[in-house]
Amino acid sequence: MSVSQAETGLKKSLFAAAILSVLVLIIYSQCGGFELVTYDDGSYVTNNQRVMQGISAENIGWAFSTFQLSNYHPLTVVSHMADTTLFGNSDGARHLVNVFFHLCNVLLLFFFLVKATSGFKEGGLVPSFFVAALFAVHPIHVESVAWVAERKDVLSTFFWLCAMHSWLGWGKDRNAAAYGLTFFFTGLGILAKPMVVTLPAALVLLDVWPLNRVDFAKNTVVQFGKLILEKLPLFGLSVLSSVLTVMAQHGGGAMQSVDSFPLSLRLSNALVSWVAYLGKMIAPFDLAVFYPYPHEIPFWKPVLAAVFLIAVSAVAVRFVKKFPLGAVSWFWYLGTLVPVIGLVQVGDQSMADRYAYIPFMGIYMVIVFGAARLVNSKRVPGKAAVALGAFAIVSLLAAAYTQTEYWKDSRTLYTRALAVTANNHHMHYNYGNLLEREKNFNEAAKHFKAAFKADPSHYKAMSSLAAILSRKGDSYSALELYRKALQLNPDYAVALGNRGIVYMQQGDLDAALSDLRRASELEPLNVNHIINMGLLYYMRGENAQAKEWLLKALQIDPQNKIARKNLVLIP
What we know:
Elements: H1 3-28, H2 41-46, H3 49-53, H4 57-65, H5 74-87, H6 91-116, H7 125-137, H8 142-146, H9 151-173, H10 176-192, H11 199-208, H12 220-229, H13 232-251, H14 263-282, H15 300-318, H16 324-337, H17 359-376, H18 382-405, H19 410-420, H20 425-437, H21 441-454, H22 459-471, H23 475-488, H24 493-506, H25 509-522, H26 527-539, H27 543-556, H28 561-569
């Protein structure tokens, strides 16, 4: 290639990159005016004291030495701290940081494919552009970008794609520095989100296509063995991350038991979800922030899903010599979903849009480069293929823009999810909490009822409804709901504390003392429990004990007006 040709190619690539950037900004620039939502954003950001303090050596050390929300992703936590240091309490700025990383990921994917496929007849600029454009505008990726709590998605993918770029250097030139960079970026990706544990296996797939490091005319078993062997240090990082993740999720109570989610149901849901994700790729309608886990799945669904998955896998393997991209893309999709497909169930969602962020790259590649192959062989007119691709991009862009609007605030997000899903206990509960904070107790009660109707084990919704009933003076119904909630979770401090207050109002001070003491043991830094203990001792005539508890509350929260006011009143 001459110098002039290289310059022309660079100009075209930069122009394509500019178009990709515009596509991303058309959809996501609106995020700069969005609020944080009450679903997880509070836990990750606003209610996290360390994050809201910003960057410091002590806080960084804390992020790397502790588990947060049943996860170990210290680099993501540090990125939220950096937001605070740089932008203060700006919700919009936090959103735009996510948009920035998504834009970087789009461009990294584009330039990787341009470089890796430049020598292919069906490769190069145009198909690389369309793959990156699909990744940029597909509505299913809105959740990963527009949800600040999902910073871990866009951040970990940034390091994943950086590792892919450095792996090109190793795959083509065996450059030791390139291998070192791949190890470095893999480690950073895992520290941002454990889902990156599948990256070493994905690199093996990239060795097949587009790096062409496997000669199918020779012994493939030996070749794959060597490819896996050279990645043992990377697989070692994955094993270490997996151990830490299991420790974090088990210790935090996020890992579901076999009693709650039987293995047969997990396997059925996994098989159905593998196919359902493909359905959402083709027809991205009725997307929601939470998809409830089914109580049962008709037998025919997982059977048909298994038949489909096995059939496609068999075809991919059968034609791997003639069309290696088919097998690479398909097994990329299947493999990168394995950590989140639900065989090890974490949380109670059946599937999640955010889980498709990396897996769909494989499907985009086979669609676009497969079409380019057809165009190159004269089976499909080139202009028709480009026109169809452009139409798809514009249609998806419009859908993604609308989907992004649903993330502007909590109310819009929850009402949208409730509109497109059924029996969504999570969304009923979250929306009920939002309504309760707005003092709309009647509507809140309806959603709390709907939450534990959809999920009879939802003790939090029962407790929240009980608090509303108690406020209305229906102590009998409130106590019955607290009883049911505490049967499900005897250590739910909120229910214990609130039931203790009801007992105080009824004059049953011994029962109140039992509940409030236990609540304060479970949540020793909860000022409300401590103040209520002080008030309870005052009602019992034990003024010295009452003062002791109120002073303890002021040690935790020196500005607490309720504690100060009541302390003055006690003789």
